Amino acid sequence: MSTVPTIYINRNLILPDSDQWRFRFEVKSESSDRIYIISQNIKKKHWGCSCMGYRRFRKCKHLEAIGLPTHERPYEAKIEAR
Q1: Alpha-carbon distance 10 to 26, whole Å?
Q2: Which among 3, 6, 36, 75 has the fewest CB atoms less than 10 Å away?
Q3: DSSP letter at 42?
Q4: 32 contacts: CB under 8 Å, gap ≥ 6
């Protein structure tokens, strides 16, 4: 039996859910002062990012850095605030 992985997020970075997205939280760009939002699509269960790489190609280093799949593959993870 596999377990659902846990992603630990600083509670100050967590955002409220929207109509389409849940488990929303902010990540800072490594190369600029930009802030991106990572979240899970409520219906399709895939994770997304607000960065240009994800919006154009459905792949980004922000998702990969925390171990989330790209290309709109459904993935369950538990988000825990710290």
Answers
A1: 9
A2: 3
A3: T
A4: none
> Are 65 and 54 contacting, i.e. CB atoms less than 8 angstroms apart?
no
Could you tell me which of 56, 7, 4 has the C-alpha nearest to residue 27? 7
Pairing status of strand 47-49 against strand 35-41: antiparallel
Q: What is the pLDDT of residues 14-61, one digit of tens each?
A: 999 999 999 999 999 988 999 999 999 999 999 999 999 999 999 999
What CA–CA distance (Å, rounded) separates 2 from 11? Answer: 27
Tell me if 25 sits within 8 A of 39, measured CB to CB.
yes
Placement of tokens 């369950």 in the chain: 76
CA distance 82 to 80: 7
